[in-house]
Design goal:
two-stranded antiparallel sheet, Ubiquitin-like (UB roll), 3 helices, four-stranded mixed sheet, alpha+beta
């Protein structure tokens, strides 16, 4: 994507990142609107997402910049990016290639609370994580 760098930096500066420099990004399927995952972006990963059309994030647990699908090949092609009225959260509509969840499910939200306050798995795995993420 041919992006005007000055306009990109203005847009990023207009967002409200948390004190840790991150903003939540909710990724949803562009067609079904199913929530696929929630991750966090810093200014660099948001900029790269806009420039490349593929999602990039900052991992809070690994303290590492990463592109979705860099290990698994299950990338996300950005269709649209939205912000809320407070400009402190993003919703990113994507075309998901494979599974969004590192546990092997299409969505990270594959468990539903039942009447006994237990989590039921409500989806099928698309892949075995042990086959993709070698430890």
């Amino acid at each position: 994507m041919n992006v005007n760098e000055e306009k990109l930096q203005e847009m990023i500066a207009g967002l409200k990142f948390a004190s840790d420099g991150l903003i939540p990004a909710i990724c949803v399927d562009a067609e079904t609107k199913q929530v696929l995952m929630v991750a966090y972006m810093n200014a660099e990963s948001l900029g790269d997402t806009v420039k490349t059309g593929k999602t990039h994030f900052w991992s809070r647990s690994r303290q590492k910049y990463w592109m979705k699908g860099e290990s698994s090949g299950h990338t996300q092609q950005v269709q649209a990016i939205y912000t809320d009225c407070d400009t402190d959260t993003l919703v990113i509509e994507v075309k998901q290639n494979g599974a969004a969840c590192h546990e092997g499910y299409l969505s990270c939200f594959y468990r539903k609370l039942n009447e006994n306050c237990e989590w039921d798995v409500i989806a099928e795995k698309l892949f075995n994580p042990d086959d993709v993420y070698k430890k």
